[in-house]
Amino acid sequence: MSSINPSPPSRHLPTELLELVFIHLPDPHTYLTLSTASRHFHAVANAKYTRINFASQWFFTYCDGIHAPEVINWIARFIRRHCGEPPAICTHYDYKLARSRLSSKPKVIPNIRERLHIANLFYDTKYGPDESLWQFSSLWFARRREKFMTEILPRRMELRGESVEDMPPLEELVLDLEDVVMAWDMVGSWQQVAIEDRDDIWENFTAFAFNRWRFVRKIHGCLCGKEGVQVDEKRSIQPRPKKRCGNASSERKEASRTDFNTKRMKA
Ligand SMILES: [Zn+2]
């Protein structure tokens, strides 16, 4: 009788197989669409294991320097590392001071803490907060970028039991589905550039924007969350005060977050 009213074969897929299907999907929009197919699909797609393995697999496959620039993986980490309430503050190598001392005797150049403009996330504000670079590399307008930084990422971290104030260094961050949503648009932006224009950073705005991100990674970097980093306090702005936990339940939450982070650092 099953041939009269057959149930979809996908309903019988074992969870492990369904996880593998989701992890290897080519883009986040297919992922999200497929997650609405049934309660079982939704539960599997929404599980942390599936989401972070999908993100890991996706960045490995598509931000490989062939499909799209590998710097997109770093950009996604940089954006996540500085999310939260503005101003975003970054500890980094003081390239500007180093450059100004090029002609004098080499000295040890200390690191500084500097504000990042939330809409562009670049250190160099010599020409004002130029919002076009992140926009040209993602096609996201300022409001969407701001919402991603101040609402979506912090909320997702809270759901994962992590704290914006106690994030590990950029290299140790665990990327998630929402990072792929952002990065997917960066890949789309890159693929709109004609192949012959991709190296032409002085003519093509998108190529210039990606080159600028590479410059930020190479020249300034990000030392946030790293231990033992010396900072020139005089030339730095003060770090953001940590949010105080006012009651026992939030203290418990904080304790479990720290525990979680410690476990992850050891893993
Ligand atoms: Zn930083």
UniProtKB/TrEMBL annotation:
InterPro entries in the cross-refs: F-box-like_dom_sf (IPR036047), F-box_dom (IPR001810)
Residues of the signal peptide: none
Domain F-box positions: 12-47
Pfam families: F-box-like (PF12937)
Top-level taxonomic group: Eukaryota
Region described as Disordered: 233-267
Coiled-coil annotated residue ranges, if any: none
CDD domains linked to this entry: F-box_SF (cd09917)
Biased composition (Basic and acidic residues): 250-267
The name this protein goes by in its record: F-box domain-containing protein
Organism: Ascobolus immersus RN42
